Amino acid sequence: MPRSTGPRRAGCPILGPELAASGAQTLTVFGLHVPDRLVDRFGNDELRDRLRDAVLASLDSVLAEPIAGVIATDAAGRPCIEVKTTRDLEQALAMPGGNIFHGSLSWPWAEPDAPLTTPAERWGVATAHPRVLVCGSGAVRGGAVSGIGGHNAAMAVLEEDLP
């Protein structure tokens, strides 16, 4: 049975040749919905540590043995785990608040005081610019990879009485 060389990205191994040959593996944890305000509360470095510890504790809760025993460590004995906070994502990708959804996701109904006079407002895709609609994850009702933002923008266009 061939040994895995770890995941590949764009044709390049994530692990260097020596680690890949050793049978080392990588693990990616993508934690969503970590509020950006926690960076201000704890500081970026402490939040990274807290997030790492929470993920390890969560994994340990479903494993027969603690995962720490199989995680590589660096020369200082720290686990070789890369953790990014929302602030790290914001700085690296110019993503406001580090939110991959371009803003907090909201429930599928409008707030009681939300203006609902236009189809775009009712469908949650309105912007400050006439005839420009939000079609992606930044739509009021979110979207992520569901495509609901595009669907809702199309529905607003179909309802709009345009000249």
Write the layout of secondary structure elements.
Elements: E1 8-9, E2 12-13, H1 17-22, H2 37-42, H3 44-60, H4 86-93, H5 119-123, H6 148-159
Antiparallel strand pairs: 1-2
Short description:
The chain contains 6 helices and 2 strands, in the order ββαααααα. The protein has 163 residues and is mostly helical.
Kindly provide the radius of gyration, computed on alpha-carbon positions and rounded to a whole number of angstroms: 22 Å
Q: First CA to last CA: what distance?
A: 66 Å
Number of strands: 2
SSE arrangement, N to C: EEHHHHHH
Q: Largest sheet, described in full?
A: 2 strands, antiparallel
Question: Can you describe what's shown?
Answer:
By secondary structure, this protein is mainly α. It folds into 2 domains: 31-98, no CATH class; 101-163, no CATH class. The protein is 33% helix and 2% strand. It has 6 helices and 2 strands. The protein has helices at 17-22, 37-42, 44-60, 86-93, 119-123, 148-159; strands at 8-9, 12-13. Strands 1-2 form a two-stranded antiparallel sheet. It is elongated and about 65 Å long.
Keywords:
163 residues, mainly alpha, disordered N terminus
